[in-house]
Amino acid sequence: MRTLVISLLLLAGTALADEGSIRLKEGPGKDKVMANCIMCHSVDYVQMNSVFLDRNGWTASVNKMVKVMGAPIKDEEIPQIVDYLTRYYGK
Amino acid sequence: MRYHLASIPEVNAGEWRLKIGGEAAQSPYELSLDQLKSNFEQVELAAVCLCSGNRRGMFEPHVTGVQWGPGAMGNAKWRGVRLRDVLAKAGIRKEAVEVVFDGADGPAIAQTPDFVKSVPLWKAIDENTLIAYEMNGAPLPHWNGYPARIVVPGWTATYWMKHVIAINAVSKPLSGFWMNPAYRIPKGRFPLVDRFVTQETEATMPITEMVVNSLMTSPLPGQKVRRGSIVDINGIAWDGGYGVNRVEVSADGGQTWHAAGLGPDHGRYSFRQFSVKFRPDKIGPATVMAKASNRIGATQTFELIHNPAGYHHNVVQRLTVEVV
């Protein structure tokens, strides 16, 4: 029965890059991202969305994490996270 | 594998219990893994498990979410027991409208909505909806939902709860983030049959069955092929459980189409392999396309049916090979 399974995961390309090999770029705010974001999801989410999101997009994304997913990010740290994402992973 | 929540336990099968209940069940009870396997008739079927967001990364205009390519899927033989048999033992009352699944995985922080999903009662008691504990003849691997998961053949993977620990029959529609606003499609835009009426709003409905679709696995985009040689075009096709009965392939950008040969039929919920040979006779780029149809006459679209969450991308795939 094993022959029936065809693993297609390799075809997903960059969306499924080995997350262990992904390191976020160094820069101000990275520590806030590491402290607040990756407790719930892997860093590849940042990378895979980097080609699409500008400042407004990253702002919406971080706000969704706080308001919908309940991420306990301090208000004063939100701009630092958005700045980092926009500068290093912005469209 | 895709999980929504970060706290994913290694389940100890000896301690695992499946609780069956809900306010629309007369006699709630629980099952050990041994009891699940031995107290009900065992069945096996092949079925595609496909992420609702498969191919989301190919949406134009872009939509947010995991930027999946075409790979968020798998096909396997699932062995387990019928959910309907397990529910029947709990005595489902006539006011039941949905059956709710919860898994052992949970959020990393309490504020994150737990991943809980429901299906309409009619789908829960479909004879093909299973509680599966084996995949391809072996115990479910951890990442596939060990020791038991829900299998909802024909429907997208959001309903296929991994590490299931609770099944509840309820008399009111389930609310919560993962039912609404998540996993929603605009009403009336897709040629779908299955509805989930208790969850529908004026504008949206939950995603239900997979749309008919196909994926060429060879040749690869940009591959060089020799003029006059025989080139195999291979791939797989699947749908929401009506059964793929036709795949047409074009090697000239859609001007002419040829019926592909279909591989073994593993049942209507399984994907179906297809293959066709072509002999390129002109030097230069050649555009290869594949289009699947199913037994109810549904076929793939040539233009994306855009929707905010990036679901149901079944645009006919095009790839270009270089004839040298």
Main interface: chain pair and counts: A-B, 30 and 33 residues
Strand order of the largest sheet of chain B: 2-1-10-5-6
**Strand percentage of chain A:** under 5%
Mean pLDDT across residues of chain A: 82
Helix share bin of chain A: 40-55%
Counting DSSP E segments of at least 2 residues, the number of strands of chain A comes to: 0
- Taking the alpha carbons of the first and last residues of chain B, their distance comes to 39 Å
Alpha-beta content class of chain A = mainly alpha
- What is the assembly state of the chains in this entry? heterodimer
Query: Which structural category do the helix and sheet elements of chain B fall into?
Result: mainly beta
Number of helices of chain A: 4
- What would the average pLDDT of chain B be, to the nearest integer? 97
Any low-confidence stretches of chain A, pLDDT <50, length ≥5?
Answer: 1-17
**Number of DSSP E strands of chain B:** 21
Helix content of chain B: under 10%
Strand content of chain B: 25-35%
What is the alpha-carbon Rg of chain A in Å? 15 Å
* Series of secondary-structure elements of chain A, N-terminal to C-terminal: HHHH
Terminal residue distance of chain A: 45 Å
Integer-rounded radius of gyration of chain B: 21 Å
**Shape type of chain A:** globular
